[in-house]
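Budget justification, computational time. The allocation requested in the original proposal was used primarily to generate structure tokens for proteins on the priority list. As evidence of use, we reproduce two of the resulting records. The first is shown immediately below.
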Amino acid sequence: MRTTRQPLSLRRRTFLQGSALAGTAALLLPGLMASRVRAAAPKRGGHLVLALDGASATDSLDPATYTATYMQTVGYQWGNCLVEIDEQVQPIPELAESWEPTPDATKWVFKLRRGVTFHNGKEMDAEDVVYSIDHHRGPESKSGAKGYLTMIKAVKATDKYEVTFELDSPYADLPYVLSDYHLLIVPKGSDFTRPIGTGPFVIKEFEPGVRTFAERNPNYWKEGRGWVDSIETLAINDPTARIAALQAGQAHFVNNPDPKTAKLLARAPGVKLIDVPGAGHRTFAMRTDTPPFDNNHLRLALKWGIDREEILTKVLNGFGRVGNDQPIPDFDPFFNRELPQRTFDPEKAAFHWKKADITGKIPLHVADAAWTGAVDAAQLYREHLAKAGIELEVVREPNDGYWSNVWMKKPFVGSYWGGRPTADLMLSVAYRSDAPWNETFWKRPEFDRLLDQARGELDPNKRRELYWEAQRMIWQEGGEVIPVFNNHLFGARDNVDGFVPVPVLTGLRAAEQLYFTDR
């Protein structure tokens, strides 16, 4: 059984937005849900092995530093957030038991679940929550969640099991913010580099870029989660090696199989393919503060010069849909449906290239660590741009260290995003001027003001207008080339079940969900 849910009056979105999001998310998944075979009864026990990409030798257990799938998944092994996102992209209670805003949504009171203990035996209380959230706030914070938290004036323990968030303006999305994988709760005063959490597993060994070993938390508070006795998470960035480990039985669950061979995997003996449509997107990101990418004509040339349909067909094997150089998915209630869909247009690309008045090769730094198939996509991109008279140089980087040495360092790189449950969260984490993960270094005060207005706007129609304009600005001026939105693909042994398909940040909670059916 899942975590006890709030009363409907507390669960539903405060300002009508949620009903639209829930409805559209439900429309996204019916085929997937209808096709799910009735799972065998869960059985406790066994040693589960995950093989995941996105790992690096510089990884840290501090959740403020999590940037890619490997550590995000490890984080949910040892920790929990105040809020969880369910299959309909709705916030449900996790360590919080309920929440209630004031009528103007400038103050939110969260009631905490009682009797939840950390791995060291201490009971979780409000002081722990305040300490954990404040770890990601303040001028010295480098946390990837910092951009989400700028509207918070103060976090206060107003009772032993009550935390009050005071905001500088109305904000309807706070429960969604507090579901973010960075915001795991630890005991007050504890060391984030060796975290003690409330999660389903206790970390016993951690070798950055190699493996993580954890044992089941015997006192895990969440009913129907944390089935296996132990879990080993292998860092395997190469997709071929991950699938080989799965087929050989050396791993029970893998992420990001190569879409080009995913249909073959689905027919292989002993394994199965899990296919989840969602908000994830593959990108090529330009640093707009660095020549020649500070020239918007060049950016427009690179956006018109990519054949999105070919990348969807040849690289993703149809597991996804074309993108349009802005990150909000088409099932989001604030998706701008009036933006013209960019198509492959070498003439427009050549026009903007000439306007940019740039000569020489354009280097694109990429590795399959960025996303499975990124190198192949870059090679296709080079062919596309050549038809517009633009020479793209594909610089293949090592998989290991890609996220620390290449991403947000080199001026034009491959990247990916798992999507976020609301438009504000996606735009705040990657596009706001002061966001730690503003990977394009695109800084527009007028864009930031739009986000601030949208956060504080209680009328959903006016809020929609603001988010539409924010997307238009990114589409016209931003530094992201977003050719495709990808389905989330996973491979699993056929004796492993329990996976919960969530359209955003899919699979990060797999460790607590999965169980063996043949124990």
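The second record produced under the same allocation is shown here.
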Amino acid sequence: MMQNFPLRVGGILDHAARYHPNRPIIGRSIEGPIVNSTWAAVHREAKQVAAALKSLGIKKGDVIGVMAWNTVRHLSVWYGIPGAGAVNHTLNPRLFADQLVYIINHAEDRFIMVDLDLLPIFEAIIDKLPNIEKIIVLTDSAHMPETKLDVICYGDLIEGQPDNEPWVSGDENEPCGICYTSGTTGDPKGVVYTHRSNVLHALAAAAPDMVNMSSNDCVMPVVPLFHANGWSIAYNAPMAGASMVLPGRDMSAPGLYEMLEMGVTFTAAVPTIWLGLLQHLEAGKLSLSTLKRVLIGGASCPRAVVETFQKVYGVQVLHAWGMTEMSPLGTICSFKPEVNALPDDERLTVQETVGHPPYTVDMKIVNDMGEDLPWDGVTQGRLLTKGAAVVQRYLKAKEDAVNKDGWFDTGDVAIIDANGYVRITDRSKDVIKSGGEWISSIEMENCAVAHPDVAEAAAVAVPHPKWDERPVLAIVPVEGTSPNTDEIMSLLEKRFAKWQLPDDIFMVDDLPHTATGKISKLELRQRLKDQGYTLPK
């Protein structure tokens, strides 16, 4: 027999503190100064957080809402909450007030832990949160803000608490965290992560063909910890014994560049972040002195971004795909031997896919009747998945989110090639169907963004009397430029058949985004409808 070794997330931090105790953890604090810490120090503070929460009456299974930026203090909270046997419910400050009220009440949060600059959000909605007993402000006594709320100072709360008591023990299938979907159609849905699912997910994500995390890395998660389980980076890094740099609340290109230059070798964020950084680097004629790999997910990554990172700055791009429901990793585009053997230009084409899944994730594509489709690199179908860290049922839902065979419908339309590489062609609700044929809005947008004067692009379907739908392309110009639509159309003609080309290309000042930074096609279509937009004749 082998030992029963429960897969609980506290063990990840125990490992980092025991075997990588002095690895540097550097972060920009909410109060301003740079904080220097180590895994041993984060471990001690996390133990104090767990002890403090238990002293306040937190019991196993209680839910604690956390609204905080990526800081050293947040790392201690990240582990302290499940260490107390409670559930860490990450809260996105970019959500509308009504959405926050809904998910806090739906999850039945007892306490809120919040960065001091975000406290006004709760001042505005506290009357609608009847279950909240305490609000803990994540700062020290010297920086406690004035507020009408009944608050506790985090620094005072953990002071004097023991830093060596064991974590609350339990079954590895107990809940560990909750993250809600963005709720673009209906109310947000709660995805509950277990200790087991988070540990297995982190192990899978750290593998060489995935993010390839090691103790020699210095990791900077630009993606917020409140976005899709923080892309698991707060678990990957201590598991591997990597050092970390945490950017705090400053998501500006200059602010991120400053932190990247603190020795960061690996970083992760959505494409819009990197578009801004690349513009900053070009304008200032700057270089990236230590960065080796960048993980890009959350939305499709344009080929131009991949090329610039790799050819200009020598930084490997790992194009990824996932979902809140998948903890979130689904695929990463690392190179198998079959791809490594290709010429450079063909490898770049492969990098426009989102890659292949790790062990613990399985995938397939099906037609509208649920029949399996071939992996021929051409056939499109609905992307289904199952795995060790894939949702089975949403919080408080009456029915499972999977079909009778355990497959979860991602809502994405995809192509899979013979080597298992997945190309996301659209969201099923955003796909453009013209004359019965599908047109990929994602590929159209990525092609348009390759034009140097295009900052953002969004392709959507508009009604057509003959073809049912036709694509149109909205463009946000780079500041100070006026993109030439003929030039953009010429770029598109290299990748699309004539019948697939947009019927119109028009300029907009901005595009609507969701709270997680994705372009809201739903809102864009509604804008066009409200403005009485019609196709040019």
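A brief technical remark on that second record: The chain has a mean pLDDT of 94.
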